[in-house]
Design brief:
single chain; mainly beta; 2 domains; 4-stranded antiparallel beta sheet
């Protein structure tokens, strides 16, 4: 086990690929592909030189219409095409293929990387680490200074760290956005890894002073992880949390005290959290902002502050302060003892309890839902102005009378009294 610190100061080197045609016949089609988008040249002469000249021209001529190809420049070297990245340190992934059009199906187009991209933004570059080597199993990794982004070489899924600590003093970004806008005139959906894929027993983000990072994307995969978020930077992208996390171990724990966090935030992502705690440091209303996407499997939630949005089921949800919005899923036990809970799911609540000073509001979604058992305590508020909820066993006004609670069940209805 070693302690390893990120420096991010390796020299930037351009990637160089080669495309080598062989067995050319007139009519054969030679194709280069990046991110599922292809550029082809059909041989007009049965020579390699004809293909290298034609394919190089085709790549350069089409780079304005295909954004991925705008990041490279092709050179005709007579026996092969050399494709060089325009930006040092930024990798690309190119594949090659050849299709018969000349009669004898022996044509080929071989792709090879002669020089790999590297630079100050590569996790996988040893020169970016203070010990001169990339982190390995059981290391304690600190990203605690500077602003050098960590954008490439992100697939470290074979590594399990003891701990990963990212402090507020680090202001660079970790991971890539879902949409590449490096060149505003050539925007495309990112095809490189967008998350840092690395396992870690403990992940701590946001300790200390500083502005923090506006983008930290972590994929903990199958490792059992305790995620501690003490703070975050201002989000780098509007509408997207600063910290994006996913991991699938059944015993994952997430403790969010301050900052902007999304779990399995994007469509199609999955995460599992056995225990989610959302709190605050100074401001119960706004210190923490947490979003759990539809792909999150949640068991127990304990919210004592902040804003929380949940798009999946829970087993036990305890809220003592802050604001929560529940968008979907069934919820076995909903204990709202403080703050406001806006219930917009159509899933059944097996037991709902609303304590003094707390609010459970069904009025922000017009769809129907069922509450099997319901308790409303003194100074508690329950709002169902559009009569969307069916209370299977009624509403128990517990240890209080109707004058001690706020209960809005809509208009034009019959209220039947019975003892608890």
């Amino acid at each position: 086990m070693a302690t390893v610190r990120w420096r991010g100061d390796a020299p930037a080197i351009k990637q160089v690929d080669t495309l080598t045609p062989a067995n050319v016949e007139i009519g054969d089609i030679f194709t280069a592909t990046i991110n599922g988008k292809s550029i082809s040249f059909t041989a007009t002469a049965a020579t390699v030189a004809n293909v290298t000249a034609g394919l190089a021209d085709a790549i350069n001529d089409n780079d304005d219409s295909i954004p991925e190809f705008s990041e490279v420049t092709a050179t005709d070297d007579t026996t092969l095409v050399t494709v060089t990245a325009d930006g040092a340190g930024k990798p690309f992934t190119m594949t090659a293929s050849a299709t018969d059009g000349g009669g004898t199906d022996t044509q080929t187009l071989s792709q090879a990387t002669s020089t790999s991209a590297t630079g100050p933004n590569h996790w996988s570059e040893a020169d970016n680490w203070d010990g001169g080597s990339v982190p390995v199993n059981s290391d304690d990794v600190y990203i605690d200074q500077g602003s050098s982004d960590i954008l490439y070489g992100l697939d470290q899924s074979a590594v399990t760290l003891t701990s990963l600590s990212i402090t507020q003093n680090y202001t660079g970004k970790i991971g890539l956005p879902e949409v590449n806008g490096d060149d505003p005139g050539n925007v495309y959906f990112e095809y490189r890894d967008t998350y840092l894929k690395i396992k870690s027993t403990t992940v701590t983000i946001g300790s200390g002073d500083g502005n923090g990072s506006g983008r930290i994307k972590l994929d903990g995969s199958t490792a059992q992880t305790t995620l501690n978020v003490l703070n975050s930077g201002q989000a780098a992208e509007a509408g997207i949390p600063s910290i994006l996390w996913k991991g699938t171990h059944a015993s994952n724990v997430a403790n969010i005290m301050r900052g902007s966090v999304g779990a399995a935030f994007f469509s199609g992502e999955t995460a599992t959290v056995a225990t989610l705690r959302v709190g605050y440091v100074e401001n119960p209303a706004g210190d923490s902002r947490v979003v759990c996407g539809a792909g999150v499997t949640l068991t127990n939630v304990d919210q004592s502050g902040g804003t929380l949005k949940i798009d999946s089921a829970t087993t036990t949800f305890d809220q003592t302060d802050g604001q929560s919005t529940i968008l979907s899923g069934a919820h076995a036990e909903l204990n709202i003892d403080g703050g406001s809970c806006f219930y917009r799911s159509t899933g059944t609540i097996t037991t709902a309890r609303v304590g003094g000073g707390a609010e459970l509001d069904f009025g922000r979604d017009m769809r129907s839902r069922t509450v099997t058992n319901c308790e409303l305590h003194a100074r508690g508020t329950m709002l169902d102005p559009f009569k969307t909820a069916t209370f299977t066993n009624g509403i128990d006004v517990t240890r209080s009378n109707l004058g001690d609670v706020t209960l809005d069940l809509g208009t034009h209805l019959t209220v039947t009294r019975s003892a608890i």
